[in-house]
Amino acid sequence: MQSATALNPAFTGREHWTHNGDTELFLWQKAPERAAAAGTVLFVHGSSMASQPTFDLQVAGRPYSSAMDFFVDKGFETWTVDMRGYGRSDKRPGTQATIAEGADDLVAATDYILKVRDCGPLYVYGISSGALRAATFAQRHPERVKRLALDAFVWTGEGSHTLENRRKKLPDFPPGGRRPIDKAFVYSIFNRDHPGTAEDKVIEAFADAILSLDDSMPNGTYIDMCTNLPVIDPAKITVPTIVMRGEFDGIASFEDLIEFFKRLPNSDKQFALMPGISHASFQQKNYMLVLHILHAFFTQPEPIYRG
C-alpha cells in the first residue's frame, strides 16, 4: 500500500488489457495486499468521463476521494474498465459506444476478470449511463452479478429535466461522432441541477483527471438516453438491486425510478434517496454518505428465510 496519510490511503493499482472482438479494452485493478475476503466490486462509468477519473480520483486532504481505495480498505478487490471510445480503451473513428455495446464490453471485461481471478459473482455498481450498461449486463448475465447498484439511473426518461434539455441538442450528436468536452463542461455537470453540492477543488481535480485522458466523448449513450429509453426491463433484473437517487439529480424523476423499483422481482431490493447529492455522487460534498450506502448494501447478509 502507498499511503499519503493514515486517513487518506492510496493503494497501488495495476493495469490490464483485454479484447471484445478487435476492440481493445483497458481495465484497472486495485486490491488488498492479502486475499480480498469481502468480494470483488466492478465499477461502471458514465457518458462523459472514463473509469479512473470517476472511481480512482485522488484529491489532497479529502479521504477516500477514490471509491476504489475505500472498498480496498474495506477488504474488497476492485476493478473498473474504460468502455470503448473512452479513456485508454479503443477510440477508433466511428465508434458508437451505445449502451448495448457497453454491456458487451462488460461481458468481455468480466470474461477476463473471472478467468484471471476466479472470484465468482461480482458486486456491480454503475452510475448514470453506466447504470444502464450495468443493468443491461445484469439482465443478460445474472449469474455473474451478486448484487447490483444503480446510481443516477434513469428508466423511461419521463420527467427528466436533464434529458429534456439534452434532446434539444440531438442534432449536434451524430451517431459514431464525438462531442468536445472542456473544463466548463465538467463544471456544468455540477451546476445544472443544484450548484454547491461539490467543492471547487474536487471539480477541478475531477476535470483535470478527465481531460488528461479525453478531450471529446462518444455520442452513443447520449443518443440512447434521448431517443431509445427504456432500454431496461425491470422484470428481467433478478439479482438483488439498490436504486440510488441523489436528492437534486435531474437525470430522472422520482416517480420514474419508483415505478422501476416497484417492478423489480427480487424482494431483496432497496431504494436510497441521498440528501444533498446531485449527479456525480462520488465527487459530492456528501460522498461519504454515498460510500456508506453502497458498502452497507454490498455487505448486507443474505436472507436465510424467504417465505
TrEMBL record:
The Serine aminopeptidase S33 domain extends over 64-282
Q: Name one Pfam family in it.
A: Hydrolase_4
Gene3D superfamilies (UniProt xref) = alpha/beta hydrolase
Q: What GO molecular function annotations does the UniProt record carry, in alphabetical order? A: hydrolase activity
Indicate whether Thylakoid appears among the record's keywords.
no
The record's listing under InterPro entries reads:
AB_hydrolase_1, AB_hydrolase_fold, Carboxylesterase_BioH, Hydrolase_4
What keywords would UniProt list here? Answer: Hydrolase
Q: From the Swiss-Prot or TrEMBL record, give the protein name.
A: Alpha/beta hydrolase
Organism encoding this protein: Ancylobacter pratisalsi
